[in-house]
Design a protein that fits this description.
This protein has 383 residues and is an alpha+beta fold. It has 3 domains: 66 residues, no CATH class; 187 residues, ATP-grasp fold, B domain (D-amino Acid Aminotransferase, Chain A, domain 1); 88 residues, no CATH class. The strands form 2 sheets. A 7-stranded antiparallel sheet has the order 10-9-8-7-6-11-12. Strands 2-1-5-3-4 form a 5-stranded antiparallel sheet, sandwiched between helices. Strand 1 and strand 2 form a beta hairpin. Helix 1 packs across helix 2. The longest helix has 30 residues. The chain is globular and about 70 Å long.
């Protein structure tokens, strides 16, 4: 046992150094800096700021234009998760992380969410909304709506199916609806990684969002909220996620997806910083909204404000209050011509890949009154 405790950390350190060396080699080619310089930087990022080597590479933190003083303002996934785990109660984890629970919880609270048709289980009977009543008018679903089928427990948009040719709306017999859901189940369970799926309406972008980017898939606003020491909801950060290319979801996935992130002013919804993947390197680059407008040659508006911004903020506050005692959560909110809808809650919302985020998070830690617990203070300081 003593030998195991001694050997395992040594092996882990060797693996970590090997990963640092490989990330440094790739970074030196991308940024045209010497390997030794890149190696020293990644060691600092790993030791001081808890970044994984390739996480730092994807975030563009090897860029020599980012100074050492600026580096400390970024927050790694590991550091943020430590902070979140310290203040979010474990027994509420699946209330947000299992979509079948999340949507039913929101419905019970009167929070607007996409129409939920059913929950499909691999090894258990399905829950189908239309079996709750014999009244066909129970659902107000328009037959022209698309369907989206998502695993109840997944990350980064994995295992999502889109249907645009199945009608479940008014005028469709309940027996036919159930049959169609069974047909969907037979297909989605070919995705062997997941054992349950939610079936819901697929929302459409607000008309103002449809011209943003080269993809018509749903764009969502990530709003990270926290409850202050008086348990009043506050907004920590807001940004718009934009699907690009052939992607069917807007998840950023550490930059690997190629999607865009557009930081929005919390009070006004105005776009400023834009984070995008620099093809073909796969490394994130940060530009201003004005730079993006110029690169698109007049395709985008000079100034962009997210629509229905007051409604977005109000919904985020309502979600934060409804899901108390969770203290810090990242909400995905859809903006449509019919209003705003809650799509997801993220117990361990990934960090916003910007130097803005650490200062915002430290302000939240102070506002939550972290000083009452030394362990929470350590988590807030990421030591």
């Amino acid at each position: 046992m003593i030998l195991k405790k001694y050997v395992h950390p040594k092996i882990d350190n060797i693996r970590l150094l090997n990963e640092c060396a490989r990330a440094s080699l790739k970074a030196s080619r991308i940024h045209r800096k010497g390997w030794l310089w890149c190696f020293k930087r990644v060691l600092s990022l790993v030791d001081k700021y808890r970044f994984a080597p390739f996480e730092a590479l994807k975030w563009g933190l090897f860029n020599p234009n980012i100074t050492d003083s600026e580096l400390k303002n970024f927050v790694s996934k590991r550091a943020l998760s430590r902070f979140q785990n310290s203040i979010n109660p474990d027994d509420w984890y699946y209330v947000t992380e299992d979509k079948s629970i999340f949507y039913r919880f929101c419905e019970a609270e009167g929070i607007p969410v996409p129409e939920l048709f059913g929950v499909l289980y691999r090894n258990y009977p399905h829950w189908i909304r239309f079996q709750e009543t014999n009244n066909i008018e129970h659902t107000s679903v328009d037959p022209s709506k698309y369907l989206v089928v998502k695993p109840c427990r997944s990350v980064f948009g994995q295992g999502v199916f889109i249907y645009d040719d199945i009608e479940l709306g008014q005028g469709c017999e309940i027996s036919d609806r159930n049959k169609k859901l069974e047909e969907i189940a037979s297909k989605v369970f070919s995705e062997t990684r997941f054992n349950s799926f939610v079936v819901q309406e697929k929302l459409r972008n607000h008309s103002k969002l449809r011209t943003l980017g080269d993809n018509e898939e749903l764009k969502t606003v990530r709003v990270i909220t926290y409850l202050d020491k008086e348990h009043r909801p506050q907004i920590l950060a807001t940004f718009l996620k934009v699907a690009t290319g052939e992607n069917i979801t807007d998840n950023w996935d550490g930059g690997a997806s190629g999607n865009l992130i557009i930081h929005l002013d919390e009070m006004t919804g105005r776009a400023d910083e834009v984070i995008r993947q620099n093809d073909p390197t796969g490394v994130a680059e940060r530009i201003t909204w004005e730079d993006l407008v110029q690169s698109e040659q007049g395709y985008l508006e000079e100034f962009f404000y997210a629509p229905l911004w007051d409604e977005v903020r109000a919904l985020a506050h309502r979600l934060a209050r409804s899901f108390s005692p969770l203290r810090i959560i990242g909400w995905d909110i859809a903006i449509t011509d019919k209003g705003v809808f809650a799509l997801e809650g993220n117990y361990r919302a990934g960090p916003y890949p910007s130097a803005l985020f650490r200062k915002l998070l430290e302000s939240a830690a102070i506002d939550i009154n972290m000083s009452v617990n030394s362990e929470l203070r350590r988590a807030a300081n990421f030591n």
